[in-house]
Here is the input.
Amino acid sequence: MDVETVLTVILYRRLKRGNRRRRYWVHPILTTRLTESHYIILYPKLRQYGPKFFNYFRMSIKSFDDLLALINEELVADENTVRYTISPEEKLIITLRYLATGCSLGTLSYDYRIGKSTVATIIPHVCETIWRKLKPIVMSEPTKEKWYEISEIFEKHSKFPNCLGALDGKHIRLIQPEHTGSMYYNYKHFFSLVLMALADANYCFVWVDIGAYGKNSDSGIFKNSSLYKKLTERSLDLPDPKTLLIKNRPTVLPYVIVADEALV
Here is the structure.
């Protein structure tokens, strides 16, 4: 069979498959969403028991309510464009459950009686909304006073003066995206993207860079980051060098960021 014939057969099969009628417009299992989903049955009970709520969502009830209030308006669906709407509260619940457990989209589809493709749309939208709303609040660029506060905590807990943060990269395992070759294949022999973060002495992120290819080195990622650019341009509002007592001799030393040799 020549190549042209093979391609013709493949095209015919695809067209035939595309013309098949859907057996269900809405699967019978999904029609019970308003009576049997976890949102209807389990969620109200979880709100009665704070520890169980935290165990399920990895978040307190108050934190959940505060987050929902912050993003609620952005998650409201247009009731004129869909057959039925999913509330912002339910969208947040589904997303938090996914982030807390890493469960499959299929599991969430069955638990919440929502189509798998709908779940796949909800999670990225909610995550993007959370990032956009919270970034200016919880990860704004530190002021000179904030840098100084970070250095004070480092000195208190780690006995390391003039430290503005600890910098390192973390490989986040993923399924190889299509048509990417070895771009995401890292030296640990699995596919990943890289989260690089600067953390304070309380393990809270001060700055992050997310999404670099797994094959990239930490030093390469850092040198292409916004943090490196601001450091080299001296545009960060860093504290002035501080006088420290070294071997009973006053010495003026600059503030530093600590990292391993991979970032050199």
